[in-house]
Amino acid sequence: MVFYTEYSLEGSNTFNIKAKANVFYEVSLREDLDSFVRKRKFMDMPRLVLGNGSNVLFVKKRFKGVVLKNEMKGIDFVSETDNEVVLKVASGEDFDEFVDFCLKKRLHGAENLSGIPGSVGGAVVQNIGAYGQELKNLVQSVEYYDFDDLEVHTIDNAGCNFGYRDSVFKHELMDKTFIMSVTFKMSKKYTPIIGYGALQERLTGYSVLTPMLVRKAILSLRFEKIPDYRQYGNAGSFFKNPDITPEEAQKMAKQHPEVKMFEQEDGMFKIPAGQLIDLCGFKRTPTPTVGVAYTNALILMNLGGAKGREILDYAKKIKKAVKQRYGVKLEPEVVII
Ligand SMILES: Cc1cc2nc3c(=O)[nH]c(=O)nc-3n(C[C@H](O)[C@H](O)[C@H](O)COP(=O)(O)OP(=O)(O)OC[C@H]3O[C@@H](n4cnc5c(N)ncnc54)[C@H](O)[C@@H]3O)c2cc1C
Predict the structure, then answer these.
(1) CATH topology of domain 75-223
(2) Which residues pair with 213 in a beta bridge?
(3) Tens digit of pLDDT for each residue in 125-172?
(4) What is the mean pLDDT of residues 52-69?
(5) Is position 237 annotated as part of the catalytic site?
(6) Is the dihedral of CA 195, 196, 198, 199 positive or negative?
(7) Could you tell me which CATH number the domain at 243-336 has?
């Protein structure tokens, strides 16, 4: 059981915010959680489970509670059929390293999620997605520690209630659980998913598509479009891409023909939020410490020394401008703490 007090979180969040935690507790094993819950003074304090901090914004100078930093590691082979291999992955594993591990073992399905920072546990909470793939398509079950009954439970894919950047861990199970491991069903057969425009373009001219080639193409696209958070702190997309009804889409097309929309399978229309932010002029109006990325206005950046509150205020300004001009409500993808 390792814990620190007055711990600086600057290196534990990709926005590089200089917040502090009263207590910072590293969790490597189930026994660490058992020791934690036995400490009454810790259990009485606010609690935050932290993976790699790539989807959080600390807006207060101090988290007045215990940060449980996930350090659970290990990948175990569970079973194999002619078509699939099942792997149980500890939630503190780095997600992109897991993708790389799978590719080296010729196991497929995760390659389009290449380059997404964060832990395996954080990936489940958020149901991460990119380039036409979502994590929910690979998850068989999730094992979590429940801080209410102090037991370990397993839920299957359906029980996770996955949605667009959403899962049961953001609702009924929010703040109550520590995801310990995730069981993935990986395919032995490779089926390329290259419907996404920019990816298709990048891969033109290749007669044979290998998973490693697709991973490399995605990593290069991400490198071009997403600023390095070590230089300009960010958490990827700050807002979710909003969905509007067909009636709203019709109205939008009439009033704002410049706005691109994409019809979804369920009949709703998705609008790239970055486009709306760009059209509202935010690429031209950074503050000395906060701005949006030139390559993608959906990415809010710490330009140097920004306080969490300054980033949140800028996000609110964006939200207000988009609502006023386009009548669309933006919801944050990032968890505000
Ligand atoms: C440069 C950059 C690019 C990105 N690109 C993408 C992208 O393409 N697609 C995408 O979907 N996301 C993207 N993201 C967002 C982010 O990488 C993901 O949301 C990631 O899965 C977060 O994982 P994490 O371990 O960092 O979670 P954290 O930020 O540490 O935590 C996020 C939330 O999950 C909870 N949580 C984390 N671990 C656990 C656990 N073990 N048990 C219970 N709760 C837990 C936390 O309490 C918090 O509420 C990007 C971020 C960055 C910085």
Answers:
(1) 3.30.465
(2) none
(3) 999 999 999 999 999 999 999 999 999 999 999 999 999 999 999 999
(4) 98
(5) yes
(6) negative
(7) 3.90.78.10
CA separation (Å) from 2 to 30, 69, 173? 13, 10, 26
Structure-token pair, residue 78:
């569970």
Cβ count near 12 (within 10 Å): 20
Q: Which of 9, 27, 67, 128 to mutate to test the pocket of ligand 1 (most atoms within 8 A of CB)?
A: 128
Out of 47, 165, 202, 215, the active site residue is 165
For the stretch 3-32, pLDDT in tens is 999 999 999 999 999 999 999 999 999 999
- Report the chain's mean pLDDT, rounded to a whole number: 97
Cβ–Cβ < 8 Å for 162, 155: no
Closest CA relative to residue 172, chosen from 161, 184, 156, 188: 161
Which residues, in sequence order, are CB contacts of 18 under 8 Å at separation 6+? 8, 9, 10, 61, 307
For residue 2, name the pLDDT band (cuts at 50, 70, 90): confident
Q: Whose CA is nearest to atom 34 of ligand 1?
A: 122
Measured in Å, residue 116 CA sits from the centre of ligand 1 at 9
CB count, 10 Å around CB of 240? 17
The reply to whether CATH 3.20.20.140 applies to domain 2-70 is no
Tell whether pTM > 0.85: yes
The full set of domain ranges for the chain reads 2-70, 75-223, 243-336
Per-residue pLDDT at 279: 98
With contact defined as beta carbons under 8 Å apart, do 123 and 135 qualify?
Answer: yes
Atom of ligand 1 at shortest range from CA of 235 = 53
Q: How far away, in angstroms, is 113 Cα from ligand 1 center?
A: 13
Q: Which residue among 72, 89, 116 is best mutated to probe the pocket of ligand 1, counting the most ligand atoms within 8 A of its Cβ?
A: 116
124 Cα–ligand 1 center, Å: 8
